[in-house]
């Protein structure tokens, strides 16, 4: 299995649903999984972009005392063309903002996944 310099690992109650959204809607590729009793309990998705390969792992067993998905930040995914992503995702994903140009030199599109995590498609402008 290939590795990236940074891989985000997210708790989700339904790994199959996460994989379906990220591969079917967001354009990631399913690159690995482990099953238990016929259902995925861990999976990896990946997507190549202008700054390298982004990888996200999903797992369904809660960590320590965390009752559900929790993440206070944004997951940035750099792409060639944010406006093209916005057109492709129109009506297919919950868009939270954008596309909009930020004063810090990025064009951004914020999307919420089915488990409440926020992804920001971004490009340098």
From TrEMBL:
SUPFAM superfamilies xref list: Glyoxalase/Bleomycin resistance protein/Dihydroxybiphenyl dioxygenase
InterPro entries: Glyas_Bleomycin-R_OHBP_Dase, Glyas_Fos-R_dOase_dom, VOC_core
VOC domain sequence ranges: 4-124
Pfam families attached to this UniProt entry: Glyoxalase (PF00903)
Record PROSITE patterns: VOC (PS51819)
Protein name: VOC family protein
Phylogenetic classification of the source organism: Bacteria, Pseudomonadati, Pseudomonadota, Alphaproteobacteria, Rhodospirillales
